[in-house]
């Protein structure tokens, strides 16, 4: 049941840095992206076209996207609304990412929209992005539980996923935004999603709040998932999810996969160099 290889998507420059209170200078962010690009990862999430007042750390999205293009890497940038998409189009972003919460309270706090208004906006974003030949990633946040509403049902997640599938997302990343999932719910939820949406590409996005993230990764693999988001040095968190901690770390994930004889395509030495740089950058 174990795959020969998996894809790791590095989200450190976006999810990793967005929760950092002190602004990381743009030049340092670029250096981090450059180091990450050397480790042979297929895609890096490098920018977020959100409102600079909502997340000041991501205010230099234009510079990061422009730099990512100069570097020639395949990169992802967050675009929660049409305004964000216009900014991304100007920067020639190859792959966008929208994000909608499975719960009303979180979605309101995060992007100040109801779930249905968000989904409607996403349809417009997808249409325009497709016309520009951009690839589309769609996140479902709070895919297992929510800091405001507690347990999240399969039906809540399915509603958002169905909309993303019907409007043409290229892949859907299910986020354990607040890091409260456990291997059983992960196995059952991904199993059900794969049964209900057999043609859809799903990605698992774990935050390691309860130190269950690696167990959750293995449960996701057993449910047939082969794409994982992770963050160098385990940085990360969502400013609108109180108590949420970093993503599962890229180094931990790579070590786990390599010891399980599952290829990642990642160069361990280059990865370790990037991890040291990230830790020094943030004094961790
Ligand atoms: P809003 O204030 O409701 O927007 O923000 P609005 O449409 O009412 O517009 C107000 C003003 O903002 C207008 O300007 C707009 O043009 C401007 P004015 O006319 O007053 O001068 N505006 C923008 N400016 C720059 N960029 C934009 C933009 N949109 C409108 N994109 C908005 C709505 C969504 C923009 C805001 O709430 C926001 O930026 N939220 C971001 C929240 C965020 O970044 N959260 C973290 C990422 S999600 C996450 O971490 C989860 C994930 O990792 C997966 C997981 O773990 O589950 C992805
Ligand atoms: Mg996240």
UniProtKB/TrEMBL annotation:
Keywords: Lyase, Metal-binding. GO terms for biological process: ketone body biosynthetic process; L-leucine catabolic process. This is Hydroxymethylglutaryl-CoA lyase. GO terms for molecular function: hydroxymethylglutaryl-CoA lyase activity; metal ion binding. It comes from Ureibacillus endophyticus. Residues 6-272 form the Pyruvate carboxyltransferase domain. Pfam families: HMGL-like. Belongs to the HMG-CoA lyase family. The keyword Nucleus does not apply.
């Amino acid at each position: 049941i174990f795959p020969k290889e998996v894809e790791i998507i590095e989200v450190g420059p976006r999810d990793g840095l967005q929760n950092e209170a002190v602004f990381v200078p743009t030049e340092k962010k670029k250096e981090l992206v450059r180091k990450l690009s050397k480790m042979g990862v297929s895609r890096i999430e490098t920018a977020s076209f959100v409102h600079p007042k909502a997340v000041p750390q991501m205010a230099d999205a234009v510079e990061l996207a422009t730099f990512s293009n100069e570097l020639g890497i395949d990169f992802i940038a967050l675009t929660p609304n049409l305004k964000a998409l216009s900014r991304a189009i100007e920067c020639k972003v190859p792959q966008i990412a929208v994000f909608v919460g499975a719960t009303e309270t979180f979605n309101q706090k995060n992007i100040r929209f109801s779930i249905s208004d968000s989904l409607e906006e996403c349809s417009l974003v997808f249409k325009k992005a497709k016309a520009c030949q951009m690839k589309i990633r769609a996140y479902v946040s709070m895919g297992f539980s929510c800091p405001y509403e507690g347990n999240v049902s399969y039906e809540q997640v399915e509603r958002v996923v169905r909309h993303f599938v019907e409007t043409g997302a290229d892949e859907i990343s299910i986020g354990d935004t607040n890091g409260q999932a456990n291997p059983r719910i992960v196995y059952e939820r991904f199993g059900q999603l794969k049964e209900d949406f057999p043609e859809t590409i799903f990605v698992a996005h774990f935050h390691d709040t309860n130190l269950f993230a690696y167990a959750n990764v293995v449960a996701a693999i057993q449910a047939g998932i082969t794409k994982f988001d992770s963050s160098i040095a385990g940085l990360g968190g969502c400013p609108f999810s109180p108590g949420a901690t970093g993503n599962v770390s890229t180094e931990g994930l790579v070590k786990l996969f390599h010891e399980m004889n599952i290829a990642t395509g990642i160069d361990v030495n280059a990865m370790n160099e990037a991890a040291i740089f990230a830790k020094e950058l943030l004094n961790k």
